[in-house]
What we know:
This protein is an alpha+beta fold. The protein has one domain. Helix content is 21%, strand content 24%. It has two helices and five strands. The chain has helices at 10-22, 37-44; strands at 32-34, 51-58, 64-71, 83-84, 88-90. The strands form two sheets. The protein has a three-stranded antiparallel beta sheet, with helices on one face. It has a two-stranded antiparallel ribbon with strand order 1-5. A hairpin with a 5-residue loop joins β2 and β3 (64-71).
Amino acid sequence: MTNNxxxxxxxxxxxMTHAYQNATQFQGMTVACxxxxxxxxxxxxxxxxxxxxxYFALDDLNNLTIVVxxxxxxxxxxxxxxxxxxxxxxxILCNKNSPLMK
Length: 102
């Protein structure tokens, strides 16, 4: 077993994602965002990067998306470094067979 405090079970993840997908105020909104491994690697391998922070954001069409930025050991965004967006959103690119989808 690992000491990673961020790990949760599939069952916990499904309860959380289904709660969001079923919530009235989020109907019709983005339910997931996907970026390729290389995008995250570019953020994570920056000098001084110890963590990654994901911000919820709205794109130019007012669609929910994410902005990803590296974070240093003091918890500061590496805002002068690599910042990612243009995530592939679901709906549009969805894994309909995922247990995380309702």
